[in-house]
Write a structure and sequence with these properties.
Largest sheet: 12 strands, mixed
Number of strands: 27
Shape: elongated
Distance between the termini: 89 Å
Helix content: 25-40%
Structural class: alpha+beta
Radius of gyration: 32 Å
Oligomer: single chain
Number of helices: 21
């Protein structure tokens, strides 16, 4: 029979939990006090018939004593421990760390995936696997779960919070979460499982990963120097995403604690100050086994649960691979519930039917979108480099599949950037872009300052810039995605002041360890850039840590890096030969129509100028940005032409959109919205942006027709 913890330490803990002395056990098992002492110290083990009497004395079954993979249920039961109110009368209206982030599943995905990357076990070379499970409970399944979390014991605390909710932001959220559960008869669980990660190792109270996550705030104990997180705030997103302020945890440890590794369970509840039955409570509470070593055994600590308990709490893990499962109870996502978001519009396009799963379907989509956007590089491998991360999302209702498990594929979500990174790993980059599909590499210097504000440069780190053609699935084009060691996208920025008519591109900047372990000063660059990130880890710039460790002007080194990057990008994309033929992508051809015959012959007159090439995108403010190429016939004089943008509708006349901007690029000039062409020119290029104020519907939902009309806007 498989055994867990050594008999001696296990027995000693059971005696504490049962508040039983060695003498009492000796009397109950009909052995001497010296025999019990020898068992506990490991100098001897009981015989089979004696083990049966030990099990009876502890009030447990024989298998529990043989396997020792869980504690007995005798003595102190699992319960909620609520931190008492402060003796000085101070009150907390909630955990301030949770206010650093929005109740948004996309923010949750970014922070939790980053933490899992930081805790990846690197010795085996395998990626860390992170799976998100949305699970809606109703009816009997919901009743069973409430019983498992001891809801009756918690209800008075939630009532107290609801009564004072008008004066507390956290209280209002919690009150709404409780009402939603009872009025709608449902509860959404969101579980985040990682595998091939370190797990919550360490003691319940002393320094270690367990205490840093479960007991403390603003403490970050990462396994690697190149970790993404540094503030200890990311874990707060778990509680911020719970409308009930509750997170349950099951961890499989990479390093044994108390001789065990599997099913280390704990729960933490974040509520504001409250008074229940005349007693004040400070805020947080923990679900666990009362610790017999604390005064009055009044403090709850983690416990080693059996499989049945883990299952009842929806915390069963797949196998014994190290890692942690976080169960967010009452998960809510404000963004996906906003009926003005594209997610809601997508539901309407699907027919508008609501089978009761619209909320969790929208959350599913937003999770997949966030993982593909922020962690595409960590999920990409090539050459001798393996992916660091694998992610997936699945959605259930009462155990039945609503949306099948969806593995996030970076080649689908970010095809161009993935191609660029693989080319770097495979060593197939080029110095210049001369053909479609190529990836150009350009080293870009980051000059690292000296610590302590001393003048001079510590060294120059050569970051790696990759540039390639953009594809439709990439999203916004002409952007640079910057990342460092953990390969999470840190900074996204459009390249400004690009000449008109350049081929759409995507760029990736690899800095620190992401540029390669052999890159000069990679470790120093990693440390410097990490210090330049705010708690959201979404940009590089001035921070307090940067000022304290380097100087108030240290952020200027990053500004110079940005300038170097933009210069290098422009050099690569502007100098390349233009593609021949039409420029429209398949996506553009669906949304933007160009009549191939823009003008008819008039007697023996030559053919009028006609549109021949297009590039279009949607700007940051929702405007259509169009660059058009015009084919000019051979003629000494060409008529003036007016570019007109119309909404493509199924019936009736096409509404006309106004130009917010219309400028000439080559072979023409613009005057009062009319194109006048350069004599003897064979081609002309102009650029325009539509006026968003005149758009009758959201730009992403429109189809356009672009026409050239002879004269000042008359029909061609």
């Amino acid at each position: 029979m498989e055994t867990g913890e050594d008999f001696g330490p296990w027995l000693a803990r059971q005696l504490k939990l049962a508040r039983m002395t060695q003498t009492q056990l000796a009397d109950a098992a009909d052995v001497t006090r010296a025999a019990v002492s020898a068992w506990i110290t490991g100098r001897a083990t009981p015989r089979a018939e004696t083990i049966e009497r030990v099990a009876q004395a502890l009030g447990t079954d024989l298998a529990t004593v043989h396997t020792r993979t869980t504690d007995t249920q005798a003595g102190l039961p699992v319960t909620w421990y609520h931190r008492p109110g402060y003796h000085d009368g101070g009150r907390d209206g909630g955990n301030a760390a949770a206010f650093a982030f929005d109740a948004d599943v996309q923010v949750l995905a970014r922070e939790t995936c980053q933490n899992s990357l930081d805790e990846r076990l690197t010795e085996n070379g395998r990626p860390v696997r992170v799976r998100y499970t949305l699970h809606e409970l109703t009816g009997e399944a919901l009743d069973a779960f409430r019983k498992a979390i001891l809801w009756d014991d918690l209800h008075p605390h939630y009532q107290a919070v609801s009564q004072s909710s008008a004066h507390q932001k956290v209280g209002r959220v919690v009150d709404a979460g409780v009402r939603d559960m009872f009025e709608k008869g449902r509860l959404v669980l969101l579980r985040v499982d990682d595998y091939n990660a370190s797990g919550l190792t360490g003691d319940d109270y002393d320094d270690g990963k367990f205490a840093a996550v479960v007991r403390r705030q603003l403490e970050s104990l990462k396994s690697r120097r190149g970790a993404g997180g540094s503030y200890g705030l990311g874990k707060a997103t778990l509680w911020a995403t719970s409308a009930l302020g509750m997170v349950l945890i099951n961890s499989t440890l990479s390093v044994p604690h108390e001789g065990r590794t599997e099913r280390r369970l704990i729960g933490r509840l974040e509520l504001p100050w409250r008074s229940v039955d005349g007693r004040a409570y400070a805020g947080p509470a923990w679900l666990g086994r009362p610790d017999p070593d604390t005064r009055g055994a009044d403090v709850a600590r983690s416990w080693w649960a059996d499989e049945k308990t883990a299952e009842s709490l929806h915390l069963t893990r797949d196998g014994d691979e190290p890692g942690t499962s976080f169960l967010i109870v009452g998960a809510h996502d404000v963004a996906s519930l906003d009926q003005s978001t594209p997610d809601a519009a997508g539901d309407e396009e699907d027919g508008g039917a609501d089978d009761g799963t619209r909320d969790i379907r929208a959350m599913h989509r937003r999770l997949v979108e966030a993982l593909g956007r922020d962690f595409w590089a960590a999920m990409t491998g090539g050459g001798s480099r393996l992916p660091l991360l694998e992610t997936s999302v699945r959605t259930l209702r009462n155990g039945e599949v609503v949306v099948e498990e969806e593995k996030v594929d970076p080649t689908v979500t970010q095809p161009s950037r993935t191609r660029a990174l693989r080319a770097f790993y495979d060593g197939t980059t080029v110095d210049r872009l001369t053909e479609a599909g190529q990836v150009a590499l350009r080293p870009v210097p980051l000059r690292l300052p000296l610590l302590g504000g001393r003048p001079g440069t510590h060294g120059t780190h050569q970051a790696v810039l990759l540039v390639t053609d953009a594809e439709d699935a990439d999203g916004t084009s002409n952007e640079v995605h910057s990342l460092r060691g953990n390969r999470m996208t840190i900074k996204k920025a459009r390249v400004s002041d690009l000449p008109l008519g350049v081929t759409a591109f995507q760029a990736v900047l690899l800095a620190g360890h992401a540029a390669g372990e052999s890159a000069p000063f990679a470790e120093e660059a990693e440390e410097f850039l990490r210090a330049a990130e705010p708690p959201e880890h979404d940009r590089w710039g001035q921070t307090e840590e940067l000022t304290l460790r380097w100087s108030h002007a240290a952020h200027r080194r990053i500004s110079r890096l940005t300038t170097e990057v933009n210069t290098a990008v422009k050099d690569l994309v502007v100098a390349r030969p233009k593609r021949s033929g039409r420029q429209e992508s398949p996506k553009l051809r669906k949304a933007l129509t160009v009549p191939r015959k823009t003008a008819a012959r008039r007697g023996s007159a030559p053919v009028l100028p006609e549109l021949d090439g297009l590039d279009a995108s949607i700007g940051e403010n929702g405007e259509w940005q169009i660059t058009a190429e015009v084919k000019l016939p051979r003629a000494d004089e060409l008529p003036d032409m007016t570019p007109v943008v119309l909404l493509d509708v199924r019936s009736g006349s096409r509404p006309k959109l106004d130009w917010a901007e219309l400028v000439a690029v080559d072979g023409c000039e613009v005057e009062d919205g009319v194109l006048r062409f350069t004599p003897r020119a064979r081609r002309a290029v102009f650029r325009g942006a539509t006026d968003v104020a005149g758009h009758p519907v959201r730009t992403a939902l429109t189809r356009l027709v672009l026409e050239l009309r002879a004269g000042k806007g008359s029909e061609a």
